[in-house]
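Standup notes
- DV: blocked on the single-chain target, sequence here:
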Amino acid sequence: MKLMSSFAISGVVIVGIWGAAMAQFPLMAATEHSDKPDVQVEAPNLTTKQSNPRPSTTEAVKGVRINTMSISGVQQKIAIKHIAKLWQTFENQQTLNKNLLRYPRKISVYYQNFSQDFQQAEVSIGYLSDIVRSANQSTTIPGAQYERILQKKAHSNAELADAWKKIDYRKNLQSVLEIHYLDASGHPVSSEFMVNYK
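- DV (later): unblocked, structure below
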């Protein structure tokens, strides 16, 4: 994966998270104190659940079961605005790359334990542990039901940033999982984006 494209994607993600988190706090206050009923808004390519009276904030929400998996790479409690530094640390992991048993086909990015203002999280970036010999820094991603916000396909940086805006921060956010699929040269060819609520 090219280092500069990683920085660009990370920058877009950071801006998206901050924008979405800040935009939803005033919305939460207005929703809690409003006597007006929620209004159902229909837009193209948006799917809402019939049992939920609020408009859905996710595009084509589909539940997907993710089995427990382990990733090896880097992990850090970090301010979201500094995620590019963590990507750089991951890119510079020479020992990790030397311990690969076979060529990686994907990189997983797992966000958990968000701060109350969504400005910090424990972030893990890595390859599946089963392709890494003697994986020292591994993170277990527990099996859970996720809501898929972006389907597995090629996405622009703007689409990845918009995915963060579609998270319903009013719900109890448990984790976010991004999976970036790689070609034979290590360049990202597709991504998917999922969110898990408690």
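- Follow-up: The chain is about 25% helix and 35% strand.
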